[in-house]
Amino acid sequence: MTEPLLTVDDLVVEYPAQGFRAKPFRAVKGVSFDIRPGETVGLVGESGSGKTTIGRAILGLAPVSGGTVSFRGEDISHPSTARRRELTRNIQVVYQDPYSSLNPALTIGDSLTEPMIVRKTPKAEAARRVRELLDMVQLPADSATRMPREFSGGQRQRIAIARALALDPSLIICDEPVSALDLSTQARVLELFLEIQERTGVAYLFISHDLAVVRELSHRVAVLYHGELVEWGDGDTVTSTPEHPYTQRLLLASPVPDPLQQAQRRADRLRLKEIQAEQDVQAAL
């Protein structure tokens, strides 16, 4: 079996308490999973579940209080500033908001060239790479001379993906990359992620609150609930026949066109929520 590209082992992330004698807030509670080269792992959970915090911990932007994050066998849980900068060549990120992720004062070409210039890439080679990236995300070559305000949300997200690919990374952290887009644009961007993966072999950690979106491109899926990993396994299995009540609730949250079926799904979600609440009370005792 292929050795993991990234391994998260018993990860704990805590934030300092805000009040007098208050306990630190534990956002992530002993989470473990791995990502293989060329694989997509979906990390799914509702708002506040800790999924974005895990992505930030991998990027060195959230404090790792316990456990380890390893990349190609190297512990990167507490990287120095210089080492974190080096890691950006291999680990990149695509954020949720395509509007704020691009500098409005730079042309698209300048935004795409910037990480390469920092790496002292010759200008001619950087220009060639920009043309290649724009073609990869299916945007015209003249996009390089235009400003971010001239593009739609879906096009801006394509540009953000191109920038993440600029240094030819091995892993991209995708933090809710389609949640700000309309449904038809979501579908096109998800197809683009799949095409890029087939073409380059890049691995994704795909963070989302939507189990239906995660199902589209994840080989394996991890489900988070209140900072804990409650289900982990094959993507098709977890997203179609989940075992944990919380994952079942996430599955039932996806709307269906039949009103009677939708009403039944709503009732089933309420029942599962009550079961989960009882289990939470028992666990707290």
List key phrases describing it:
285 residues; alpha/beta; Rossmann fold; 2 domains; 6-stranded mixed sheet; 10 helices; 41% helix; globular
Provide an overview of this structure.
- Helix 9 runs antiparallel to helix 10 (259-284).
- The longest helix is centred in the C-terminal third of the chain and has 26 residues, at 259-284.
- The chain is globular.
- It has a six-stranded mixed beta sheet with strand order 6-7-8-3-9-10, with helices on both faces. Strands 2-1-4-5 form a four-stranded antiparallel beta sheet, with helices on one face.
- 41% of the residues lie in helices and 22% in strands.
- It has two domains: 6-242, Rossmann fold (3-Layer(aba) Sandwich); 255-285.
- 36% of the residues are buried.
- By secondary structure, it is α/β, with parallel strands linked by helices.
Helix and strand arrangement:
Elements: E1 6-15, E2 25-35, E3 40-44, H1 51-58, E4 66-71, E5 74-75, H2 81-87, E6 91-94, H3 108-118, H4 123-136, H5 153-165, E7 171-175, H6 183-200, E8 203-208, H7 211-217, E9 220-225, E10 228-234, H8 235-240, H9 245-252, H10 259-284
Helix pairs in contact: 3-4, 4-5, 5-6, 9-10
